[in-house]
Amino acid sequence: MLALLLVLAGVCAAQSSAPVIEVPNAPNSAAQQAKPYVVLVSLDGFRYDYPKKYEAPNLVALGRRGASAPEGMIPAYPSSTFPNHLAIVTGLYPEHHGIVNNSFYDPALKERYTYSDQKTSLDGRWYSGTPLWSLAEKQGMRAACYFWPGSEAEIAGARPSYYVHFDPSIPVDKRIDQIISWLKLPAAQRPHFLTLYIEDVDGAGHQFGPDAPEVAAAVKHVDAEVGTLAQKLDALHLPIDLIVIADHGMEKEIGPWVNLNQWADLSQAETAGPLIYAKTEADAQKIYESLNGASDKFKVYRRASIPAALHYDANPRTGDPVVIATGPYPIRAIAPPPDKDRPFAVGAHGFDPAIMPTMKAIFFAAGPDIRAGAELPPFENVDVYPLIAKILGLEIGAIDGKLSPVESALKPPPQK
């Protein structure tokens, strides 16, 4: 019986924690040890209005003692998970950091990227820009990631000193415990930039839709975990700024599937979800002409003519022509065989936030560097990068994000 209990205990431990991968990076320099700490938390799919819609007292309290964006933070197009998590940590739009959708085709490499395939998601070739963890490590400051899209790949020649392979079975409380453990390390090894990723709200939103009681329950659960994290961080008595954001919002999807090959011959094109990669200029124009005006559920553009506000015209990975949904419609280039088809999700995202405000995400921040009671108007999520770099005193290169839209969240420098 004792042996059985020991085996069961080992199984439970394996299911409730994940091994930390430690990279032999240099320790924190003396100058970086004196810097503050930033814990960046992503609550995937946490729509900007959920705190009021479903009550999230811990997030609201965080905003009251620090900063918030009551009308939301604007995701990059497409408002999908991987493109926006990389936009947040690189300060670049998807067309510039390279992850233009959760799955896409690269005409130059003649290869496909799929976020769920470790052969591509862990391959640094696909990523451009310098994530905050790589920026920190290159400047003598340690970083740690408990899940974050891209954090398992070597990007810009660096990895975080500590990271964990994504495993959705790991409970949130165990993830929080690891964050606290990292912050209890000796000063030379202790990370100053840390990420934490929590996916519960997104999963509920996809399965049940944003108005479902299951989403309300997920919001309350995740909000309670944020409260626990905040309490445990306060107990460390370190100068920690806690920033809690989301990658995108959620909307109820309206079916049926919109299959683009209903109007255009795509048999000679590469496709990935709604993305189309014509093999020749003539083919691209022919497909464009076939799709243009075919349905009120989408608009179609040649890549060079995509509206500038979408920041989606500079990378061949976005395809050509490019189809943009006009509402929460499930669009795909080609329907799979009937035996491999699947119903569209009840809740979805990926849409243009200018058309659908429900794509906007939360932003809350509090800590010694954050001004209490600061309320920011809607700003783009690429602006988070210069905000965090400013707090940590890291030098940054050319990015799409700007500090000016979020600078009022920071406390003014002390008077000399």
Strand order of the largest sheet: 1-8-7-9-2-10-19-3-20
Principal-axis shape: globular
CATH class of the largest domain: Alpha Beta
Number of strands: 21
Number of contiguous helices: 13
What is the averaged pLDDT score? 95
Provide an overview of this structure.
By secondary structure, the chain is an alpha/beta fold. The protein folds into two domains: 22-92 and 129-251 and 355-409, Alkaline Phosphatase, subunit A; 258-344, 2-Layer Sandwich (Gyrase A, domain 2), CATH 3.30.1360. 29% of the residues lie in helices and 17% in strands. It is built from 13 helices and 21 strands. It has helices at 2-16, 30-33, 50-55, 57-64, 81-90, 94-97, 118-121, 132-138, 172-183, 200-208, 213-234, 281-291, 384-392; strands spanning 21-22, 37-43, 67-68, 73-74, 103-106, 111-114, 143-146, 162-163, 193-198, 240-245, 251-252, 258-259, 270-272, 275-277, 298-301, 322-325, 331-332, 347-348, 363-366, 374-375, 379-380. The strands form seven sheets. It has a nine-stranded mixed β-sheet, with helices on both faces. Strands 4-21 form a two-stranded parallel ribbon. A hairpin with a 2-residue loop joins strand 13 and strand 14 (275-277). The longest helix is centred in the middle third of the chain and has 22 residues, at 213-234. Mean pLDDT is 95; it is low at 1-15.
